[in-house]
Amino acid sequence: MENQIANKAGRILSWLAFSLFFIIFINMFQAPRITIGSEEREIMRNFHIVAGTFLMAISMFRAYLWIHFPPQKNHRLLPEQDYIFIHFLQFVLYCSFITQGISGFLMAWSDGVIRFMKGIDTIDHGLWTISGYLHSAFGFLYIMLILIILIVRLYHMFRYRVFSLNVFA
Amino acid sequence: MRKYLNNTRGMHWLFMIVIIGIAFYLPFLIFGAFPYNTKINSDSDEMGQLLEGFESVDFYVMSEYLTESPEEIQREINAFETWEGGKCRFCHAVKKDDRDRMAPTLYGIFGRPAGVGNNYTYSDALINMKSNGLIWTPETLDAFILNPSEYIPGNRMRVQGIKDPETRKLIVNYLMRESKPIKGE
């Protein structure tokens, strides 16, 4: 019973993660093209922070469910190792969303965009540079992972006749 | 979960490490980003040596001859700040109070030796140009932004270059107007 609820929650969270990722992906392509300091850019950045925070929270919950209720193999035709590989990639994908969220938070915090207390200056260019680099690197990581998952899924489709293009599990 | 991870083959882990390695290299390769800053690149003694013979030259004197028409100023802003223009503002700070970005600040750029700005880790190519005595003037900057990878091979400004001479002129004029250092600094 518990497993069934976890599976259902996992599916809902996966779809939520996919939807949020899709929206952030569009935002990510458009926002850097808007002139720095303009009102439109500020709005896009604030949206990016809010949507990114939600994606990180959902990914944390999804990873928690994954650890406590690991997905069960239900494709008879798919070999064990192939099944484990695709789920390993998907689990790392959620981990990359979490690390992406943490580095994004540090980036915004060290740039003075997120403040918790009045009068406390959190601007630190050194931290901004490191966290910015990590944010970019994890961004490339999840783009590569998504592409690899899609390729592996297609391979499974042709090799084992197991049809699923679900990237987010 | 432990059983699940134990069943993951060594090849899977190796594959993942390679992917993560590539992901960490890509921001450097594509954007020329660097993961940390060098706080101070040149001390006052070195600056004195680099600027020998140039101390009395004020390149910003030329800013007095720039047109004050609002249309022209707006064209300069568009050339420097927008995506359709030179895209320079996306990576560079210009004024004294601007927050540092991922590229070195252009505040007081004219008359400054190459590779001396603080809070930025320069490429070896720029450091070599500093040793070779490159000073940023309207002419050298124009030549650099025309084709950065040809002018200073191995530098990390990953842009194709601005082929249109009019846009380059507007960018130089924008910098002449906006990056002028406050007297006494």
Topology (elements, then pairings):
The complex is a heterodimer of chains A (169) and B (185).
Chain A lengths: L1 H29 L8 H30 L11 H31 L14 H36 L9
Helix pairs in contact in A: 1-2, 2-3, 3-4
Chain B lengths: L1 H5 L3 H22 L12 H7 L19 H12 L42 H8 L6 H9 L1 H4 L13 H14 L7
| Beta strand count of chain B | 0
pLDDT < 50 runs, ≥5 residues of chain B: none
Helix content of chain A: over 70%
Structural class of chain A: mainly alpha
Overall, the morphology of chain B is globular
- Radius of gyration of chain A, CA atoms, in whole angstroms: 18 Å
Termini Cα gap of chain B: 61 Å
* SS strand fraction of chain A: under 5%
> Strand pairing plus helix content of chain B: what structural class?
mainly alpha
Task: Tally the beta strands of chain A.
Answer: 0
Taking the sheet with the most strands of chain A, its summary is: none
Give the helix level of chain B as a range of percent.
Answer: 40-55%
- Unreliable spans of chain A: none
- Known CATH architecture of the largest domain in chain B: Orthogonal Bundle
Largest interface pair: A-B, 35 and 31 residues
Structure annotation, total helices of chain B: 8
